[in-house]
Structure formats: structure tokens, C-alpha cells
Amino acid sequence: MLETIIDLAQEAPAETFKKAIGKAREAYEQLDQCDTGRGQSVKEIEAFLDLPYFLDLLPRIEDPQKKAELEKKLAYYAQHQQEMEYAQVFLLLGSLYRDYEREREVDKLVAGLRCQLEKLNGQGKELEYAHIALALCQLYLKCGKKQEFTDLVKKLAQRLEQFNRTEKVLIYAQVSLTLVKLCLAFDNGSLPGQLYLTFKKKWDFDNLITKLELHNRQFADDKGKEWQHGQMLRILAQLHFYVGKFEAAETYFKDTIRKLDKKYPNEVRSHHLHAWLAHTLLKLSKFDEALQVVQEAIRHDELNFTNRETLGDVYFERGEFQQAIDTWKDTLWRKNSIMRITHEYEIKYDPEIYFKIGDAYVKLAQCHRELCRRKEENKEAVKYLEMALDLLATDRQEVRLKVCYSLGYFHFVMSEYENAIKHLRICQKFGFAPLTSTFYLAYACLRNKEYDEAIKQFSALRDLATDAQRKGRALTEMMEETTEPIVLGEMFALAHWGLAFTYAERNMDLPKALAQINEAHKHVARTRKWISKFHETEKKVEILFQARYYDCEGWILYKLEKFDKAIVCLEQALKLTVHAEVCLHLALAYEGKLRQTSDKKRGQPLITKAQMYLQYAYELDTNDQYKQQLEDLQKRLQEISQQLSPAFAKAK
After folding, report:
1. What is the pTM of this model?
2. What is the 3-state secondary structure (H, E, C) of 107-147?
3. CATH of the domain at 93
4. Is 244 part of a structural domain of the chain?
5. 584: three-class secondary structure by DSSP
6. E strands along 358-407, which residues?
């Protein structure tokens, strides 16, 4: 009875939590009569279960449902102040946040929490201090007070490293895990609670984790503390995962499952330990074992949505993108089917899965060479990414900006330049992937014939690249983790390419345009030289837009009526990428050369070439981006063909 209550108590809502703990207390009293040496405490377990849940409610007090839940919790704490450990701290925090919810004065709430920290400082109440410090860290995170957050985290970590009360080790471990999650949320620009895969920057928690490992040993040989031991193992596993020590995390997750599975199987399910283990194995590139773990978990628990979502994650990491999409869609369908039973309509409440599905469509489109399939998959990617953006909470700015960037990129790919510009401007404004966002924003303005703005943005890209180089960034360094990561050296090349292409499109200062594309070529050559010096162990980098540079040079030469040189450049571009625009430019170049020749015998092969590239361009122009230009060119070629050979034209 006791094991079942402990197993389920942490999932109980506020109105049933009191009854669950009451039954646990009765069971403990009966057990203590039989075994006085158990050394377990209901107060300790109750505080352990309640800490993360209570801290999660505090910053959401502005939500009426969360406020109601918090009020129920506080009423319970007030009724059981003598029986429940840390009830006074919870009540104090609740009082401060109630005042904030009524007055909406953040500075007053910050001052109140700081005041309480000062009162507890030096009194030996380390865990009470930690509770308030964690709440203040959450508030700093919500308000964007980065330096204050960093300073308080370092201070709290140092105090926890010196904590030596072994009888409170479970609370100590829970506080440590909550602190690490807050740092993880800080690095990812959101509130904690999501499964982020390790820190973006290094936080020093090595001493804290080492101390927890030492405390863990006190449970190892105590048969009466399997539950506590399992919780310690789980926390250690998650901590090692978060700091990137995946081999140790794998060991601890497997030990946790073995420890809890026999007596506390619901703990394994409620904490999604198989999903955690599978993600750990993915980080270690153990794809087959990860697949086996999650499939076995699903066989034992068909209704566990997290395991099914993790199965989609495994397929994605294995490069099986269609299977990942199908699995995630099945997960959504199952979740919505359950919700419809009680709500009688579909509820879209899971932005992470929508984002994953959109991302998988992105990868699937990149795998397919057929333009029609890529177009459909890009549309699906946009659809699911827009759903994710609609569902993401406003406090998750970093994730929202990532989705916003992806939407901008795919609207650009689909030639929907107004929408692309709208999303990319938001990314640029908030500094998300600043160089890449600026590049695609400039490119979208160019395609949308906003030439002045395009010149402005390409110039801004050049300035950003110069600033990055001045700060010590290498030419071969990938600047940002985006859909197509671009190295710094190529950012310079793209800035000059964009200016050159914009000048050419406007028929404005063509010699200056030629000088700009020559600068782009120089940056590409310099970057290639540095890339060739990379060791095999280095991350592979490459020039992504080489064909664009040849195409641009050919286009400028065409405008200068240097058709032979233009054709050489454009055919070089076509060898590197099969693109409608390159084929159009080639057809135009052959048309230009055709108009320069008066020899009918030489003219016939030229018109054949022009018509061939025109046909290629028609087939490749799936978005009808060049439709008018192609139709105009076709009419002109028909007229020339009739002049050269009426009989040939009639046969055609």
C-alpha cells in the first residue's frame, strides 16, 4: 500500500494530494511498529514531491487555472504547517506572489525575495535559502535579468557544494536538479520543463554532481530505501545528461530502471525513464539500441505518449524522416483521441511535436531530388511550423524565433517573398542568427524587387561579417546553427554577390557589379584555402553557393553583351546546380549570341541550344517564378526561328 501511494502521490492534483499523503502517513506508522529502523520520513518524501511542482506554479500565477491550483496548495500548507516540512517557506513564497499577482509590481517581488534571502543568510537554513533562491532565479529568468540570474546561480551552487546534512539528501538532490534545469532554460531562452539536449554554454556543476554521487552511496545497501535510491539515481542520470556526460548518464538511467522497475514500476513510467535512456543512447549514436529500448517500452505501456514521441525522435536521428513524421502524427492522433472523449473536439496543445514534424518535412524535402515532391514537403513544413508558432507560449522566445526563422526560410524557398520578409525581419530585430537572417532577408528583398532595401541589407551583412572577423571568428567557422549553416568566409562572398546581383538586376553600374562579383570570388578562394587546411577530425565545412557566383558573373557579362564569356560562366554554374534561373540565363545568353550572328548556318545550333535551355527552365520553374520571362523569351525565339528558317518553324 505504501509503495503504491508513494508511486502515485506526485501525480495527484491538489485536492487529492492531502488524502494520498495521509494514507502514506498511516502506512508509515503501521510499518514503524514492525520495523523501527526504517529511517524514512513522510515529511521528506512530501517535500521532495512538492518542491518542483510548487516552483512550477509560482511564475504562472497570472494564469487563472494555475492561480486556483496554487491557492489549493497554499491552503493545504496552512492546514498542515506542523506536519509538513518547509510549509513556512512555501507559504511565504505564496504570499509574495499573491501580492505580485494583485499589484503586478515585479520590482517589489524581486525586493521581497532578496530580503528573505538576506534574513536566512548565515542561519544554517540552507534548504530554505535554496527554495527562495530558486524562486528568485525563476523570476530573473522571466524578466530577462541575465547578470542577476548568473550571479545568483553561482552563489547558490557554491552553497550547495558545502551542504552536509545527509538526512536531507533527497531535498538537496531535488534542489540541485531544479537549479540545473533553470540554467538549461536560461541557455535556451524559456522557462524550464522542456527536454533540451545539454547546455549551450558550460556551467560548472562538477563539484555539485560529485557530492551527490557520494551521498548516493548511503542508499545503495539499505533495502528499506529502494524508492529513495531510485530517485537519487534518476536525478544523477538527468544531471549527467544535462552536462553532456552521456556515458555516465546511460549507466545511471539503466541502474534507475533496474532499481525501480520491480517495486515501483509506475515511477519508471511517470518519469519516462525509457524515453530518457533512449535520448541518451541517441546522443551516443547507439541508434539500434535506442530503437530497441523505446519499442520495448511501448510494448509494455501502449498508452504512454512520451514513449511514442521518443520513437519518432529515434527514427529522425536514424534519418528515417517519413517514419518519424508518421509516428509523431500517430502520437498526436492518440492524444487528441483521448482529449476528445472529455472535450468533444480536437485540442492542438503540443507545439514541440508540430515543430518536430515541420523539421522532419524540411529534412525530407532536402533528401528528394524531385522538385514536385520537394515543393509539397516544403508546404507541409510551413503548415506544421505555423501551427507550432501559434501554440508556443510567448515566454519561449528563443524557440519561437527558431520557428520564425524556419518559416522565413521556407517561404523564401517557395518564392513567397512577402511572408519571408515578414518573418526574417522579426529574427533580425531580435538578433536570432543575425548573419543568416540578414542574408535571406536581403535575398528576399532582391527577389521582391525591393532593390534599395536589398543593397542596404547586403551591406549590413558585410558589416556583420567584418565585425565577427574582428572579434576573432575564423573564416571556416559556421556562424549559426540554421537550416543551411554558412561559414564566415562565405558570408563575405554572399554580401558581395548580393550587391553584384542587385546592381545587375537594376542594370545599374555594371562595371561596379563585375568588381563586386570578383570580390566574392576572392573570398571564396580564400575560404577554400583555409578549409583545405582543416584536419580530418574537424567538423566538415563547405562552400554552399558556388553556383550562384558563376551564375551572377555570367548574368553581368550577359548584360555587358559579352555573350561567349557569359555562356562559359553560366554552363559552369549549371554543372554545379540544376536551377531554373541558371537555365533561363543560359537561354538568354544564347539568344544574345544568336542576335549577333548573321550566318544562318551558325544560327540554327544557337537557337536549338536556346530552346533546349528554355525547356529546362520551364520544367524547373515549379513556383512559376520566371513564367512571364520564359513566355516572352519563347515568343522572341519563335520569331527568330521563323526568320532563320520558315520551313523549320512551320514543322515545329
Report:
1. 0.67
2. HHHHHHHHHHHHHHCCCCCHHHHHHHHHHHHHHHHHHCCHH
3. 1.25.40
4. yes
5. helix
6. none
